[in-house]
Amino acid sequence: MGRVVTPAGFGPLRRKEDVRLVRGRGRFVDDIALPGMLHGAILRSPHAHARIVSVDTSAAESHPKVRVVLTGADLAARDMAWMPTASHDVAAVLACGKVHFQGQEVAFVAAEDRYAARDALALIEVEYEPLPAVVDARTALGPGAPLVRDEQPGRTDNHVFDWESGDAAATDAEFAAAEHVSACDLVYPRVHPAPLETCGIVADADPVEGRLTVHATTQAPHTHRVLYSRIAGVPEHRIRVVAPDIGGGFGNKVAMYPGYLCAVVASTVTGRPVKWTEDRSENLMASSFARDYHMRGEIAATRDGRILAVRVQVLADHGAFNATSQPSAFPAGFFGVFTGSYDLRAAHCRVTGVHTNKAPGGVAYACSFRITEASYLVERLVDVLAHDLGLDPARLRMANLLRPEQFPHPTPTGWEYDSGDYPATLGLALEIAGYDELRAEQAALRAGYERTGRGRLLGIGLSFFTEAVGAGPRRTMDIMGLGMADGADLRVHPSGDAVLAVSCMSQGQGHETTFAQLIGHELGIPADRVQVVQGDTDRTPFGLGTYGSRSTAVSGAATVVAARRVRERARLVAGAILEIDPADLEWVPGRWQVRGNPTVGVSLTEIAAAAYSGRELPDDVEGQLDASCVYNPPNLTFPCGAYLCVVEVDPVTGEVRVRRFVAVDDCGVRINPMIVAGQVHRGLADGIGMALMELITFDPDGNHLAASFMDYLLPTSMECPSWELGETVTPSPHHPIGAKGVGESATVGSPAAVVNAVLDAIGVRHADMPLTPAQVWRAVQGRPLRPDLAIR
Ligand code: MCN
Ligand code: CUM
C-alpha cells in the first residue's frame, strides 16, 4: 500500500461521452425511429395466479391501426412460447394456459402508433379462472402450497434448487465447541434496480436481406444475439444487436425480456420495424428484481470476540421463473463469499430456492451476483455479535479482519481472495470519521435523551466488505454454456490514432473514457485520439458484456493485453526504421528508443505511418498496426472497502437522517479516480435507498404494491449527505494493470453500514430493512415488522 500514485495516462479525465450526454445529444433506443415503424404494447395479467380459459383477440385485430396481435398460442405455433434462462429453466414469453404472476405478459399488439396499440389492449378479451397464489417463500414448500409451475411434467412442489458451500461438519464442530454463539434471522427484501431509462427495443426483420437488426437496451449485446439465434433458429451472422446509449442498467438490462422477443416476432410477421418501450409501472412490475433472501445466520466466537465460524441457511425467493443471470454453476450466485473479510476457521451455507407467484427475481441491481446479500448478512451478524458480547463493533472487526500477510487467501468456501490490506482500510475510515469523538458525541446525546425523553440519537454504523468481481475464468464460469471470457480488438490507424472495439457495454460507467485511458497508459496515445467502439455485435468482438463489475477486470485486461501486443509489433517496425536490433530498444510512453541513447528513437505515430507505408518490413511483420486479445481471467478480483455511516434518529417519530458517510474503497489501481468516485457515490445512494426506503412488496393475493415511484421510493440528493471518500490501493496481482472492479462495491457495502448505524442509535439488536420511520418507531417499541408485511 502506501502513498497513492497515479500511473501515466490515468487520472481524473473528464468523461468523453458527456460531451453528447449532458447536451441531450445521446441516442437512446426510444430516440430511434425507422421508416414504417410500428409500436408495440403488452397486455399483462391482472392476476398473480390464474388459469387462462380463453383469449379473444378478434376485436383488437379489427382495430383499423392494428397490424398484428400475438398470443401465447401464436408463439407456441412458432415454437417460441418459452425462452431459455441462464439457470437451465425456461420462462414464458407470452402466457400459455396460465399466468404465474401479476403483470405477466399475455398478449402483444403492434399498431401504427403507440396510442392505438394501447387502446387495442383494452379490446382483447381474456377469461381467467383465478387460482390461490403463493407469495411468501416460507410457505412455498409447505403442504397445500399452490403449485406455481404445474406446466412442468412430474413437478409436485415449488422447489427450485438446493445448494451448499463450505464444510458442514467442520463448521458444526466449531459451533459445538464455541464459547459463544449469536444467531439472527434477517430478510433482504425484494428491491428493484429502477434505472432512469426503462427497457426497450426496436426490432427490424428485413425479409429481403434475411437479417434481423435489433436496437435494444442490453448490457450484454453478444449474449443477447446468441439467445435470439437459439430461440429463433437463425444463425448469428444474420442477427445484429446494437445497444446505443443506455440510461442506466444496474443489472436490469442483463436479462432477455418477453417484450424483446415479441417485437422480433411482430417485425417478422409484419415485415416492418417494431418498437416496444416499457413504461415505469411495467418496469417495476415485471422486469428483473433483486434479493428476496430470507436468511438465518449464526456466528460462533470466543467470549472475548475472536470470530471462529459462520453458518447460514437461506430461503431464496426466485419468483415464478428461475430467470437469474449468474454463471450456470452458481445457483445462489456468489453468495459463497458470505465469510466476508474475516479470518474464519470454518463456514457453511445452505441455500434453497423456491418458486412463488411473483415476477422472476434476477440477481440484478448492482449485486455482483448475490454478494450484496452475503455482505449484508455477515456485516449484520458481526454487529449482532458485538451487541451480544458488549464489544465495540470497530474493534471487533479490526481484531478479526484478514491480515495483509494472509493473501492470497483461500476462504473456507473455496474462493481465493487475491490481495488487500484490510486493517489499513478500516483504520483510514475510522480516522477520516473521527471515530472516538463520534462515540463521545453519541454518549452525550444519549444521556440528554434519557434525561429529557426527547432529542435525537446518534448512530454509528460500520461495514467492511469484500467484493468478488470480474467473472470468469471460463473453465468454471459460463452463462448458458458461453464461457466468461471477453475480447478486445485494437487498431492503430496510419495517423497514429486508434480504435478499440470491446464486448462490454457502458450504461453510464464511462467506458469511452476509461478504456481510452487504458490505451493512453499502454501506448501513450492521448485519450481523445482513441475511439472506443462498444454495443454493436457487427463491430465488436464476442464477449459476455457488462455486469458483475467485470468490464475493467476482464475487457479492461483484454484491452491492455491487445495494446501490449501492438506495442511489441511496433517494436519490430521501429527496429526496421532505425535499422537496429529490436531487442536493443526500450519503451517510454509513446515511443521506442535505443537503450542507452534516448535521442535515437521513433514515436508510435511515426511507427504507425511506417507500418502502413510502402517501406519494406521485417519478414515476420505483415504490416499495419493492430492486435486482438480474448482474455480469460485466471481468477476474480477482490476489491474491498470500509464504510462508516453516521445517522441521527428521532426515536419519537422514527425519522432517520444520514449525517455523514465515510467510504474507503480499495479497487486496486484506479484508471480514472473521478469516475471511480462517481461509481462509489451512486452505490452509496443505493445503500441509503435499500436500507431506508426501497421495497417491492405484495399483498397475500400477489398484488404488486410498488408499481410506481409513489410507492417505490428512491433516494434523492435530499436524503444523501456529502460523501467523504478515502482510498487504499492493493493492486490485483493477476490483472495486467493491477485494477479491480468497483462498479457495485458501494451497493454491496453500504446497506449494512446504514442499518448498523440506525440500530446502533436506538440500541436495537436487529430489525429488517427498509428502516422506514414506521419500522424504526416499531423497533424502538421492541416490535419491528417483517418487511414483507408492507410497512407504510
Ligand atoms: N474503474 C477505474 N478504475 C478501477 C476500476 C474501475 O477507473 N480500478 C472505472 C472503469 O473503467 C469503469 C467504471 O470505473 O469506467 C466501472 O468499472 P467496473 O468496476 O469495471 O464496472 P463495469 O464497468 O463492469 O460496470 C458494471 C457495474 C455494474 S455490474 C452495475 S450493476 C452498475 C455499475 O457498474 N450499473 C451502473 N455502475 C453503474 N453506473 C452507472 N452510471 N450506470 C449503471 O447502470
Ligand atoms: Cu447484478 S447488477 Mo450488475 O451485475 O449489472
Automatic annotation (TrEMBL):
Instruction: Output this protein's name.
Output: Aerobic carbon-monoxide dehydrogenase large subunit
Q: Which NCBIfam families match?
A: CO_dehy_Mo_lg (TIGR02416)
Pfam families (UniProt xref): Ald_Xan_dh_C, MoCoBD_1, MoCoBD_2
Domain Aldehyde oxidase/xanthine dehydrogenase a/b hammerhead residue range list: 23-132
Source organism of this protein record = Pseudonocardia kongjuensis
Q: Which UniProt keywords apply?
A: Molybdenum, Oxidoreductase
SUPFAM superfamilies, A to Z: CO dehydrogenase molybdoprotein N-domain-like (SSF54665), Molybdenum cofactor-binding domain (SSF56003)
Residue ranges crossing the lipid bilayer per the database entry: none
Gene3D superfamilies reported for this sequence: Aldehyde oxidase/xanthine dehydrogenase, a/b hammerhead, Aldehyde oxidase/xanthine dehydrogenase, molybdopterin binding domain
